[in-house]
Amino acid sequence: MLSFNAKKQLMEFLSEDIGKGDITSALLPKRNISARIISREKAIVAGVKYAKEIFKLKGCNVLIVKKDGSKIKPNQTIMIISGDAGKILTCERTALNLLTRMSGIATQTDQLVRKISNRKTKLYATRKTAPGLRYFDKEAVEIGGGKKHRLKLDEMVMIKDNHIAASDSLLSLIKIAKRKYKKFEVEVENTSDAVLAAKEGATIIMLDNFSPDQIKKTIQILKNQKLRNRVMLEASGGINSKNIAKYGNTGVDIISVGSITNSVKGIDMSLEI
Fold this sequence. Notes:
Elements: H1 4-18, E1 32-39, E2 43-44, H2 48-56, E3 61-64, E4 71-72, E5 77-84, H3 85-115, E6 122-124, H4 134-143, E7 157-159, H5 161-165, H6 170-180, E8 184-188, H7 191-199, E9 204-208, H8 212-224, E10 232-236, H9 244-248, E11 254-256, H10 259-262, E12 269-272
Parallel strand pairs: 6-11, 7-8, 8-9, 9-10, 10-11
Antiparallel strand pairs: 1-5, 1-12, 2-4, 3-5
Helix pairs in contact: 1-3, 2-3, 3-4, 7-8
């Protein structure tokens, strides 16, 4: 079942593409056809239910062959669409754009998750998403085995470098946050600030642009001061497929990677009649 907001957004996506009307598809004779969406490469498929809804908005029937989260091989059928030829072709690009993007995110997330040998360490997305696509991007991350992190700014306090630069100090911001909220996250750029944040009761400490060795040293210092078990630790910044395994072995609780949503490569898919 789709949420109201998701359905409304899909209608907006489709309306944006159609404009005043699909003048090319309007040239076609009124004829019912059957078409299928296939993948041209291996992937984790995501966005199937939204692609189905896009076609349904124009009165087409859809049979889902591969559900969200399924592993697909080249030339496998993901869904079969039947209905008026013009309406199917009107929906084609909008459905494919969302399906290929979400499948790309899910596939990349799955690949990164598999490189993290410590099962206690979880991969999280960030807020680095395109406006209007955040809900879909974050769901694709979950389908690929990752976690959402914050969807919106109102979900949790997260004190970052520019907040600190625009205030009196890190400590003053933490004290204000503690008075108003039970949970909050602090981004730090050095070990001493990590210790300060832990002592002051931060829920999560983001170790920004720390190397794996720096993280291990910071964790040891926190352990020595009996602070490690008080906080969750997040590694972020400069983490990719080549080094994520090393970060996964540092002992952090969270690894956040912006590239899974802001540098996504869509999966090659096509609609065939």
